Amino acid sequence: MLYLLKSDPETYAFGDLLRDRETNWDGVRNVQASRVLAAIRPGDGLLIYHSNTDKAVVGLAQAVSLPEPDPGDATGKFVQVRIRVLRALERPVTLGDFKAAWPEFALVRQSRLSCMAIPETMDRWLAERGVAFPN
Q1: What predicted TM-score, i.e. pTM, was given to this entire model?
Q2: 48 domain-assigned
């Protein structure tokens, strides 16, 4: 499966993930986004999207753990997932690209959603834009 994870680059940019190599993807507090995060499994491909500034998928990562409780959540309702960086994209895939080709995609329709599944029908379109994961 493929998923898109949004990050505010002023808080944690893809460059930070490149430096760190791995991190816990945590702090997701929207119930719908949290359900998506809870569905991620080791080996799933992750598109890292910079919100607010670039508004583009800028890099690729891979899940390396099952979801586990987010230690920053006192309620115990939310999870985190450990992720590992794969590579930066040579050419980011912008919000405008998604709007033009996939107007019904959650990124376009639910702009505040921070985690979302990528429909399989999008695989070829993403590959044509340099978004390919190692086998």
Answers
A1: 0.96
A2: yes
Amino acid sitting at position 125: W
- Encode pLDDT of 66-122 as tens digits: 999 999 999 999 999 999 999 999 999 999 999 999 999 999 999 889 999 999 999
Q: Is residue 53 part of a domain?
A: yes
The answer to whether position 122 is within a domain reads no
| Long-range CB pairs of 67-76, under 8 A, 24+ apart, other chains included | 67/37, 67/38, 67/39, 67/40, 70/26, 70/27, 70/28, 71/26, 72/26, 72/27, 73/29
DSSP letters spanning 47-59: EEEETTTT-EEEE
pLDDT in tens, 13-34: 999 999 999 999 999 999 999 9
Supply the Cα-derived Rg of the chain in whole angstroms: 14
Domain count, the chain: 1
Domain containing residue 109: CATH number: 3.10.590.10
Cα distances from 112 to residues 52, 63, 104, 106, 123, in angstroms, run: 10, 22, 15, 9, 23
Does any domain span residue 64?
A: yes
Q: Which domain holds residue 71?
A: 2-117
